[in-house]
Each structure stands twice: as structure tokens, then as C-alpha cells.
């Protein structure tokens, strides 16, 4: 009889354990993220400064292109490419990357173009040593991420021709930080949360031809310290509380063809007519 009781107890425990195991929720599937990237590596050619339109000759370079779906770990592996021999890296994704959280550090490099589009970036850093890298990076494009600040050391990027921070979370932008980028041609900051776009000293961007501050939260804008004689395209639409731009006149920006019509901003109509 004792043996029978022991058998019944053991059978009950086994059934209870099996039932509990089966009741556990299934593990959540790993979310895949789409990626598409191109990377051009250069191994032999030593060159000191960026030239517009530069592409390394086939004899000394190797192009890699991949696309597919990967986990967070896979995306992070892709972003850890060897910067010491890469001159061009273009990454993009068409996934909903709200749950993708990544960081990226620009290290000692040969990079001419770096584009990280919708890569889940929450932090971007520069850790350049010495002055060897100061004349290389010409295109820094990081649209559709969650960046709240410019990286420390952006002042070092004296060869910048294009800076694209559109569709991020910037609340303030200090133009003074780009004072050393004399060859900057495009500054794209649309669809952020900008409340302040300021310069506290004279900033001469003699080559700048496109400035996009549209779809932000600007209430005031002062162009008094800007020198941009080649500026042609100046987007400030959809800053609904912006009434006028101090220091802005036809004489100061002769190539700008005009601002967006009333309705997207709360323009002072007298001022708007004076600069159209």
C-alpha cells in the first residue's frame, strides 16, 4: 500500500510539472531588421585630403554590397566595420526601427562619406586623435535616427561638404560649431524639434547653398551673424510660430528666391513682402 501511495504522488508531481511546462508562454520571436549597405575599402593608396567626386581606383579598392534581414546583433556587427581602410559606407533600412537601439563611434579612419540612415542611432561619437583625420570626412548623413546632440568634436570636421541630421530629435543647434567647415554646401536639419538655431559669433559659410530648417519648432531666428553669399535654398516652412527672421534681407541673401507663402508660418506680412 505504501508503494502504491508513493507511485500516485510521483505520478501527480510529474503531471503537475508537465502541465506547468506546457502553460509557459512561448518565447518571443527575434525581430529581424532590414538592412542595405555599401562599403568601399581602400588598402594601398595613401592620400592626404578629400577631393570632390573622389573614388578610389579599382586596382586599390574593393566594393562590398549586402542587403537582407538581420537581428540587432547583426546590425551592430555591420556597424563595426573597419574604418581604417573604408572610404565610403552607406547604410539604410526600410524597417520600423523603433526597437532598434544602436550607437556609432567615428574612429581613426579614411572615411570620405558616412551615411547611417534609419540605423536606430541614439548616440554618435567622434574619437579622432591627432590631426591626420581632420581633412577626410566630407559627407556625414545620419537621417531618421534618434539623435539629440551633435557629436563632441564635430568642429574637427573641416572638410565637411554635407551635414544631414534631418528626422532626429535635436532641440538646439549652435552654428558656431561649424565655423571651421568653410566648404560646407548643405546643412539639412528638417523634421527635428529645434527651438533654437543660433550663432553667437560671425560664421562664414561661403560655399553653403542649401539650408533646411523646415518642420521644427522655431519661434525666433536671427541671421545677423551669418555670412552665406551662395545660399540659394532656404527652407523654414512649418515652424508655425516663426514670424520673421532678424538680420535677413534681399541684399544679404541675393540668391534666395523667396520664402514659403503665408500659412505654414505665422509670418509678419510686412517683413515677408520686404524679402520676397
Total helical segments: 3
* Largest sheet: number of strands, sense, barrel closure: 9 strands, mixed
Q: How far apart are the termini?
A: 103 Å
Instruction: Compute the CA-based radius of gyration.
Output: 26 Å
Task: Sum up the overall morphology in one term.
Answer: globular
How many beta strands in the DSSP annotation? 17
Enumerate the spans where pLDDT stays under 50 for 5 or more consecutive residues: 6-12, 14-20
Question: Helices and strands, in N-to-C order?
Answer: HEEHEEEEEEEEEEEEEEEH
Name the average pLDDT: 86
Strand order of the largest sheet: 2-1-3-5-7-8-10-13-16
Please identify, by name, the CATH architecture of the domain at 63-246.
Alpha-Beta Horseshoe
CATH superfamily of the domain at 63-246: Ribonuclease Inhibitor
CATH topology of the domain at 63-246: Leucine-rich repeat, LRR (right-handed beta-alpha superhelix)
Strand content: 25-35%
- The computed structural class is alpha/beta
Instruction: Assign the CATH class of the domain at 63-246.
Output: Alpha Beta
> In which range does the helix fraction lie?
10-25%
Pfam families: LRR_8
Signal peptide: 1-23
Protein name: Leucine rich immune protein (Coil-less)
InterPro entries: Leu-rich_rpt, LRR_dom_sf, LRR_domain-containing
